[in-house]
Design a protein that fits this description.
- With 153 residues, the protein is an alpha/beta fold.
- The protein has a single domain, classed as Vaccinia Virus protein VP39 (Rossmann fold).
- Helices cover 31% and strands 22% of the residues.
- It contains 6 helices and 6 strands, in the order H-E-E-H-E-H-H-E-H-E-E-H.
- The longest helix is centred in the middle third of the chain and has 15 residues.
Amino acid sequence: MAEQNVITSMLDDLSSEQPIHTALCIGQKIDQNSAIQWHYFNVNEFLNLPFTQRYDLGFVVLDTEQMLVLPEVQKAQILVRLRDLMAKRIVVVSRFQDEKLLRSLGFTQLIDKTSHDADFALWQFNILTYKHVPDWFNSKFWANPENWDKFRW
């Protein structure tokens, strides 16, 4: 399991960027910050959980014994459901072997794996920073009413 002080400092940094009031945790109980209302679910409970609210933070620990025996397809189901429905931002603690899965789902790495000796990495998904909007994607370039009578389209 990742060092607790790394998780605590990461939660403080995320809270400073955007307030976190509710958090969902899968894989291990985490009660790091008393200001955050934590909801813990195991894998089966989470996959059967109906969508009733969107949490500010989803926290997944993939390097526990329960999560290590899961097939990669089920890990992907958990992360996709969390990403698309249940959480605004997601933080994943994983081992190096999950790098391909996390990159394919659009996660970005928070801690460089070469900066420490342990077999863990921190990943995040934030829809606000997932894709930058290009310059050409605005209403200025969508239609050119001044050219409607000049050119045949």
